[in-house]
Amino acid sequence: MRRPIIAGNWKMNNTIADTKALIADLIPLVADAEAEVVICTPYTDLATAVEMTKGTNIKVGAENVHWAEKGAFTGEISAKMLVELGVEYVIIGHSERRQYFGETDETVNKRVKAALASGLKPIICVGESLEEREAGKVEEVLVKQVEGAFADITADELDKIVIAYEPIWAIGTGKTATKEEANDTIAIIRNKMADLYCADCAENKVRIQYGGSMNPKNASDLMAMPQIDGGLIGGASLKAVDFSQVVKY
Ligand code: PGA
C-alpha cells in the first residue's frame, strides 16, 4: 500500500518568527493525521523547523539542493549541509525553478542523485504548461521529464522518491485540475514508471502527489482518486488551519 503524503511547499515565505508561530499552531492540529506530513521551508527556516518538530509527526524538507558535494557554487546548498541539519525531504525540479532559474531535466537528475546519495528523499516535480496541454502534448512532456529525472536511478531507490505532478497552469492560480484530469495524468506517469522499472514498482513503491491550488475544499475529492497518493501544497500550507485540513482531507 502507498501511504498518503501531504507536503507543504512554503516557497519564499516565512521568516524565522513566522515559522515559529506557524509550526506551534500546526503541531496539535496534525498530531493524529494518518497521512505522512512534511513541511518544506526556505533554507533559513530549516534549523528552526527541525528543532520544533522533533518528537512530532511532522517531517521537514528543503526546497532545493545542489548536486556537488561542496565547492565554488555561490548561493547553493549541498545535500550534506541539509542532512546535518536533520532535513529528511527535498523538493527537486519545481516548475518555478525550471521557469525562473533555468532548471533542466539534466540538472534535476543530478540533484536527485546527490540527494539520494546523502540519504535525502527527493520530491520530484513534473508538469505541463497550459500551452502544452492545449496542444495535446501532456504525455510527451511528462514522459520526457520522468525519463530525464530518473536516468540512472535504480529500482531499489524508488521507495525513497516521491513524484509531484503539478500542472503549471494550476499552480497559485486557484485553478485546480479536475480530479479526473489529475488522476488520469498521474496514471500516465505511473505507466511510464512501470515501463522504466516494473509493474510492481510503479504500483507499490512510487508515491505520486498532485499539486496545484489544492486546498481544504478540494483535497478530499482529489485524495479519493485511486492514483493520487498525496498533495504538494503551496498557498494553503501557509496557514496552519488550512494546511491541517488538507492533511486530514
Ligand atoms: P499552490 O502551489 O498550492 O499555491 O498552487 C503548489 C506548488 O507550487 O507546489
CATH superfamily: Aldolase class I
- What is the CATH topology? TIM Barrel
Bound molecules: 2-phosphoglycolic acid
Q: Architecture, according to CATH?
A: Alpha-Beta Barrel
Order of secondary-structure elements: EHEHEHEHHEHHEHHEHEH
Low-confidence region ranges:
none
Distance between the termini: 18 Å
Largest sheet: 8 strands, parallel, barrel
CATH first level: Alpha Beta
The computed structural class is alpha/beta
Strand content: 15-25%
What's the multimeric state?
Answer: single chain
Q: Quick one: overall form? A: globular
Number of extended strands: 8
Give the strand line-up of the largest sheet.
1-2-3-4-5-6-7-8
**Percent range of helical residues:** 40-55%
Protein architecture, described:
By secondary structure, this protein is α/β, with parallel strands linked by helices. It has one domain: TIM Barrel, CATH 3.20.20.70. The chain is 43% helix and 15% strand. It is built from eleven helices and eight strands. It has an eight-stranded parallel beta barrel, surrounded by six helices. Helix 1 packs parallel to helix 2 (43-53), helix 5 crosses helix 7 and helix 7 packs across helix 8 (179-196). The longest helix has 18 residues, at 179-196. The radius of gyration is 17 Å and the shape is globular. Bound molecules: 2-phosphoglycolic acid.
